[in-house]
Amino acid sequence: MGIVNVALGKRSYDIKIGTGLLYRLGAECAQLGLGTRCAIISDTNVAPRFGTTAQKALAKSGFAPALITIPAGETAKSLKTVEACYNQLAAQRLERKSFIVALGGGVVGDLAGFVAATYLRGLPFVQVPTTLLAQVDSSVGGKVGLNLKAGKNLVGAFHQPRLVLCDLRTLVPLPMREYRAGLAEVIKYGIIYDARLFQHLERDLPKLLRRDPRTLAAVVARCCEIKAEVVRQDETESGLRAILNFGHTIGHALEAISHYGRYLHGEAIAIGQVAAARLSTEILGLPAPDVDRIERIFQRAGLPTRLELNAPQRKKLLAAMQLDKKVSGGEVKFVLARGIGAVEFGQRVPMAAVERSLNPQPSTLDP
Ligand SMILES: NC(=O)c1ccc[n+]([C@@H]2O[C@H](COP(=O)([O-])OP(=O)(O)OC[C@H]3O[C@@H](n4cnc5c(N)ncnc54)[C@H](O)[C@@H]3O)[C@@H](O)[C@H]2O)c1
Ligand SMILES: [Zn+2]
User: Fold this and answer.
1) Of 74, 202, 229, 237, which one is the catalytic site residue?
2) Maximal CA-CA distance, the chain
3) Which positions ≥6 away from 362 have C-beta within 8 Å?
4) 15, 49, 98, 333: least surrounded by Cβ within 10 Å?
5) With a threshold of 0.85, does the pTM exceed it?
């Protein structure tokens, strides 16, 4: 089992990574000094697969777990679902020492975390992420929240989990498209922080695509280490934590204009990261061969890297970018790369350059 500590003083916690850890959920929670009563929040895809195992594992260690199932999919990240969860927690008579287990992907993690942050003014919670994206990204760092009609993640809190349990075996039934989308965040860590990780990914991508357990264990652990280090330095995103948004300014806008239907988050940020790499060449001098390496690895992972946009669509995308909550003072700020493994945040970018990055000249990678 791999262990990564997120060092945040009194709010520190471990991320445990291994195979079959779900069976140890009760034993692990028993070490946290929590109350007996608890609720597992999961979704309609994950609960039938892993809900009973999680409940049994908790019961074996003396806990009394209720299972709350929310609909699968992004639309469940709503106030309506939050209210339904509150009502069920009240019916189960959860109390101040009770805790919540988020069993699922990023949607469940964000929503269950928000419920935990607010019910009875805050309950402890444990993350059991079951998508690659959730294991390497959303379950770590304490950002929890939900969507409004007006936009994604507009309501939320910082509420750190007490433990993150990444059971690699839960990734086995994950649909290939979702798995590839998680790889987009994995590759991001190489670009923003770790040139060696990027090289290893270039070398080991076929094994990773096969979900080879040893390769996966090492990669998930390294990504969690990087996220933990960034969050340790800047828990509430006043600076450095922004580097985690590499590729996300364009990616989020793309998700918004396609009404969160056409692209998975990972797919949108794959396109966004390649565009950000092109911008990086223009603004920070990222060598052109590095842009090609970046585009190539996303392509090999089976992710989209380019957009076919007509002029009105491009206009919409640029407008959506200016609505992003990361925008301040009317200027669009980007995370840009100086090299693979080294990025800078808060880079002001003229709109004309953004537009050029979305409409690149054919590259050497084209057939
Ligand atoms: N809090 C953060 O820091 C943070 C960071 C990144 C993303 N997010 C959020 O995460 C969400 C996306 O997370 P996601 O990509 O995990 O999406 P998701 O939770 O919707 O999961 C994707 C799909 O896979 C299904 N699924 C989950 N685990 C499975 C498994 N093991 N086997 C089979 N099916 C499974 C789900 O039911 C869903 O249909 C977004 O809402 C995003 O805003 C949050
Ligand atoms: Zn992301």
Assistant:
1) 237
2) 62
3) none
4) 49
5) yes
Q: Which of 248, 278, 306, 333 is catalytic?
A: 248
Ligand 1 pocket member 104 (CB < 6 A): yes
Query: Which pLDDT belongs to residue 140?
Result: 97
Give the position, in ligand 1's atom list, of the atom nearest the Cα of 113. Answer: 1
331 counts as catalytic: no
Q: Give the pairing type, strands 2-6 and 13-18.
A: antiparallel
Annotated active-site residue 121? The verdict is yes
* Annotation marks residue 143 as catalytic: yes
Q: Is 245 in the pocket of ligand 1 (CB under 6 A)?
A: no
214 labelled catalytic: no
DSSP codes of every residue in 196-259: HHHHHHHHHHHHHHTT-HHHHHHHHHHHHHHHHHHHHH-TT-SSGGGGGGTTHHHHHHHHHHTT
The CA 178 to ligand 1 mean position distance, Å, reads 8
- The stretch 71-97 carries a mean pLDDT of 97
Whole-angstrom distance, CA of residue 266 vs CA of residue 356: 22
Predicted confidence band of residue 361 (pLDDT cuts 50, 70, 90): low
Query: Both tokens of residue 47?
Result: 């609960």
Looking at the chain, the whole-number percentage of residues with pLDDT higher than 90 is 83
Q: Which atom of ligand 1 is nearest to the CA of 181?
A: 15
Nearest CA to ligand 1 atom 20: 73
74 and 133 in contact (C-beta within 8 Å)?
no
User: Residue 348 forms beta bridges with which residues?
Assistant: 333
Tally Cβ neighbours within 10 Å of residue 347: 17
Per-residue pLDDT of 213-236, as tens digits, reads: 999 999 999 999 999 999 999 999
* 247 CA → ligand 1 middle, Å: 18
pLDDT digits (tens, 9 = 90+) for 305-316: 998 888 888 889
Tell me the one-letter amino acid at 103.
Answer: L
Q: In the predicted model, what is the mean pLDDT of residues 49-66?
A: 98
Pick the catalytic residue: 159, 252, 278, 333?
Answer: 252
In the predicted model, is pLDDT for residue 328 greater than 80?
A: no
CB 98 within 8 A of CB 39: yes
